[in-house]
Design goal:
The chain is α/β, with parallel strands linked by helices. The protein is built from 13 helices and 19 strands. It is globular, with a radius of gyration of 21 Å. The model has no long low-confidence stretch (mean pLDDT 89).
């Protein structure tokens, strides 16, 4: 595996359109390799447009590999992907949704549901082993209706390439998805530095990343978070409250419009607990907030991870520790700008929530691991 040593200044994208425009230019200019790893790749205007560029790249001799999640991209497997494979693209599906009655008699039912639950939620696109994109953007038209954040960089490039290879080797070819792939593959463990690019590829790395965040919170007086899904572990909830009670500035930006109602209901359970301790909660208006940004005093993270149990302990995720002052300042400035499009939630607002919803929120939070 050859990695080109090239330091690219981090470039931030705060809308799907700006990211898509830059990505299409990068695909058109690619000379050797393209590795695309996204949770959702749709058969729509965006998916077809990007596919045309990928096919054109393959036809001019570029090695193109497309890796999608079997659940997030379930609408295109294999109908949309087979023609792309026939046009020269390498295609893999992470944990495809396949089911035959014989699974009940093969002793593989536990592995089947383990695969069903564990998803590849990463958004990682590598160009010529020179730079990559990481953040919240899927490749579908619905991303135009969401507030997104992506970063283009070469920092942590070796980890980005290794993580893609790790997931690629753990995914399935199209012609395998109608067989019985219930055995979860365990490929050769790649080496990750975990310095600038945080990869949660196994239980140890997940625990380390979670602990790293908790320790960062202890040392920070500024904690600004934006995320789509916010149903965090109890330790993180306590840590956020602790920072606020020490006089820290804790702001959590969440979407007013959410595509998974159960997550929004579950969050009602702990909103009062956070507000009473001094945490400020803001609901982003208009479009859905899908950006995942963590702003602390000593670090700024951008990636695919939400602040929920699934991102911390189940899904494959990837997050960049942004290193350049210019990019960090830009992300801080954008967060402040986004606050202008938010409504702050107060205890008075929550007192108006019907008791049935409050009761339901307790139930949903109790089952947060399955949301």
């Amino acid at each position: 595996m050859t990695i080109v040593k090239n330091t690219l200044k981090e470039k931030c994208f705060h809308s799907f359109q700006s990211f898509l425009d830059d990505l299409q230019v990068a695909i058109q200019r690619a000379e050797k390799k393209l590795a695309i790893n996204v949770y959702i790749f749709e058969d729509d205007a965006v998916g077809r447009q990007v596919s045309e560029h990928l096919v054109a790249a393959a036809q001019r001799g570029v090695e193109v590999r497309l890796l999608v999640d079997g659940y997030g991209s379930r609408g295109i497997v294999p109908r949309f992907l087979q023609p792309l494979e026939g046009s020269g693209l390498g295609i893999r599906i992470y944990h495809p949704l396949t089911f035959q009655p014989s699974v009940f008699f093969s002793g593989a039912i536990r592995k089947f549901f383990a695969k069903l639950n564990k998803r590849d939620h990463k958004k990682l696109i590598i160009v010529d082993h020179e730079f990559y994109y990481v953040g919240s953007c899927n490749l579908c038209t619905s991303s135009f209706e969401q507030r997104e954040t992506m970063v283009k960089t070469s920092n942590g490039l070796s980890d980005a390439v290794s993580y893609f290879e790790y997931t690629w080797n753990n995914a399935h070819k199209i012609d395998e998805i109608n067989k019985l792939p219930f055995k979860i593959r365990k490929p050769r463990t790649e080496k990750f530095s975990q310095k600038q690019l945080l990869c949660n590829f196994n239980l140890k790395s997940r625990q380390e990343n979670h602990q790293r965040l908790l320790e960062s919170l202890e040392a920070s007086r500024r904690v600004w978070l934006s995320t789509a899904y916010f149903v965090p572990p109890l330790r993180l909830l306590k840590a956020l409250g602790d920072v606020a009670e020490r006089g820290g500035d804790v702001r959590i930006m969440l979407p007013a419009k959410l595509d998974i109602p159960s997550m929004k209901i579950a969050a009602l359970y702990f909103y009062p607990l956070l507000l009473r301790r001094g945490v400020k909660i803001f609901m982003y208006q208009d479009v859905m907030l899908h950006s995942k940004v963590t702003i602390l005093e000593q670090s700024v993270l951008v990636g695919s991870s939400n602040l929920d149990h699934r991102s911390f302990f189940t899904n494959l995720e990837v997050d960049l520790d942004v290193s350049s002052k210019e990019a960090r300042d830009q992300l801080v400035e954008q967060f402040a700008k986004d606050l202008e499009n938010c409504k702050e939630i107060t205890l008075g607002d929550l007192s108006k929530v019907p008791w049935e919803s409050r009761l339901l929120s307790r139930l949903f939070y109790a089952f947060r691991r399955f949301l």
